[in-house]
Amino acid sequence: MKTNLTIKALTATLLTATSLAGAATVKGADGVSVTVTNPKRVVALNGTTVELIYKLGKQGTIVGTDVTGTYPANKIPSVGHWAQLPAEGIISLKPDLVIGTADNFTVGNNATVVTQLRSAGIKVLVLPASDTGGLDGVKTRLNMLADVYNVPSAAQALTKSFTTQLAALKINQPTRTPRVLFLYAHGPGDASIYGTDGGANTLIEMAGGRNIAPFRDTKPLTAEAMVALAPDAIIMLNRGYDAVGKLDGALKLPGVAQTPAGRNKRIYTVDDSIRWIGPRLPEFALNLARQWKADFRN
Fold this sequence. Notes:
Elements (H helix, E strand, L loop, with lengths): L1 H21 E5 L5 E5 L4 E3 L2 H9 L6 E3 L22 H5 L5 E5 H4 L4 H10 L4 E4 L6 H16 L2 H19 L8 E9 L2 E5 L4 H8 L3 E2 L6 E3 L2 H7 L3 E5 H7 L1 H6 L8 H4 L3 E4 L10 H15 L3
Parallel strand pairs: 3-4, 3-5, 5-6, 7-9, 7-11, 11-12
Antiparallel strand pairs: 1-2, 7-8, 8-10
Helix pairs in contact: 6-7, 7-13
């Protein structure tokens, strides 16, 4: 009898030790720590969060995302727009962990949603903002997720690939630094100039350009502003470029045709996700740098 009790006690101790060994406590960007053990049902908010989890090989744990979580191509259920997160919709997915970024969680009513989720007993990990911090910020979020999933080697492999891409980027910079603006457009009559906040600014700088927007936020596009700024190059999201009617339509936007970029038809398209800084940033920057290297030689 005593032997059986001893065996049971040892077994229980081993099981507890195993459970604790697999647990990870990760401190969020909001100062709130979460302790998780092998999460199986994760709601991953912000497209960069989804991408990083895929890179870690843990995409099978994702049970929900928002409208930005479309890459890699997937059939993950969406809870809706990232700026209007629904507490009920997230709770209905029965997650054991919700992961999102600080920039998204502070928009609109989303901070209240985080409080509601935590009040419902759901753990919420807040990653640092995805629209600032450059590649170092991506690495920070990557390492936090690697801690959550206990896959440090996967994070190390991705970090190593960044180093390789940055080396290629270094030798593909344009000889002359182009003066660049990022235009965000929903259609021919709805376009804005993005300032120096956000992922587009990071992309421009990594690719060897200089963002000449004289403000941090977003301003409506006017012909006067465009002509006065006189960019050498303009970048647009793929969907925005399509929405205005591609090159012909872009040249009809206020003031564009009167700029060096317009006269030389130097309007470049970039991935729709670049407002948020994710693991494909070096890839996007290298693609843009190679185009600028060819176009801005002297």
